[in-house]
Amino acid sequence: MSKEQQIREILESELFSGNMPSEFIDFCLAHGRVRHYANKQYLYFSGDEGNTVYFLLTGRIRLYLMSEFSEKIIRVLSPPVFFPEVVLDGKPYPHAALCIEETEVLAIDRSTFVRFIESNPSVLWFFYQGLALDLRRSYRQLRNLSLGDARLRLGAKLFALAYVHGKPSLKGILITIPLSATELAGMCSLARESVSRILGELKELKIIEIEKKSITVQDLNNLRVWIHERAANSRSSID
User: Fold this and answer.
1) Domain boundaries along the sequence of the chain
2) CA separation for the pair 149, 19 (Å, rounded)
3) Which of 43, 93, 147, 182 is the most exposed place for a label (fewest CB within 10 A)?
């Protein structure tokens, strides 16, 4: 199978499940350029001119909110996915994108992409669905950060990571993204010390197992129960 056929299969069958018009796939293949990035290489930084949109074909990417003294991981992208939808408005990138392994993307000039959509407005629905999913994810993160205690925040994040990036292993569900306590703290807006302490508690309860940067959720149901208990305690404290 040629490279073009591989990309067509990823876009047609895996990303859009056969629902996107063939004209759009043809457009992407005609105007897109395959780019390769090494581990720890940035695609763009927050504030850069938003002149390119991407389809993630292989590898994984972390999206960061960055300031002078801190950074927060807002999402980890796995293929296939289109990003970042927000730059369709012509404004700068609102976050940074860092490859966390060797990565391959299909890059398309934003203005060319927008012109095609303006001429073919029916395809907007598919991107609206992606934006709606991202918005729901953001609402969920805001809810966890504003209403949940530290244990609830971290537990919910581990459950989400296991669900999206988990792989069955002999010991449970391995979260395939290497994560340090510092990185988890950035995802949950918590202090590193708090994350380390809670991870230790979960390990003692045999809900997770940790080996260096690898985290395995030994039983997703046990983690779900633990989260629900934290949520109930949080609601009781608010009442």
Assistant:
1) 3-136, 148-238
2) 41
3) 182
Cβ count near 55 (within 10 Å): 21
| Closest by Cα among 88, 82, 94 to 48 | 94
What amino acid is encoded at 168 in this protein? P
Coil, helix or strand at residue 177: coil
- In this prediction, residue 123 has a pLDDT band, given cuts at 50, 70 and 90, of confident
Q: SS3 breakdown of the chain: % helix, strand, coil, rounded to 5?
A: 50, 25, 25
- pLDDT tens digits along 196-206: 999 999 999 99
Q: What is the pLDDT of residue 99?
A: 96
Rounded CA gap, 16 and 23, in Å? 13
What pTM did the predictor assign?
0.74
Show the tokens assigned to 151. 């244990």
- Tokens read off for 111: 């203005």
CB 216 within 8 A of CB 175: yes
Contact (CB, 8 A) for 62 and 100: yes
Please state the length of the chain. Answer: 239
Q: pLDDT digit string (tens) for 176-212?
A: 988 888 888 888 878 889 999 999 999 999 999 999 8
Enter the CATH code of domain 3-136: 2.60.120.10
What is the separation of C-alpha 159 from the centre of its chain, rounded to a whole number of angstroms? 14
Task: Report pLDDT for 235.
Answer: 54
Residue with tokens 């985290």: 215
Place of tokens 């949520």: 231
SS3 label, residue 112: helix
- Can you point out the beta strands (E) in 87-233? 96-99, 103-109, 166-169, 172-175, 208-211, 214-217
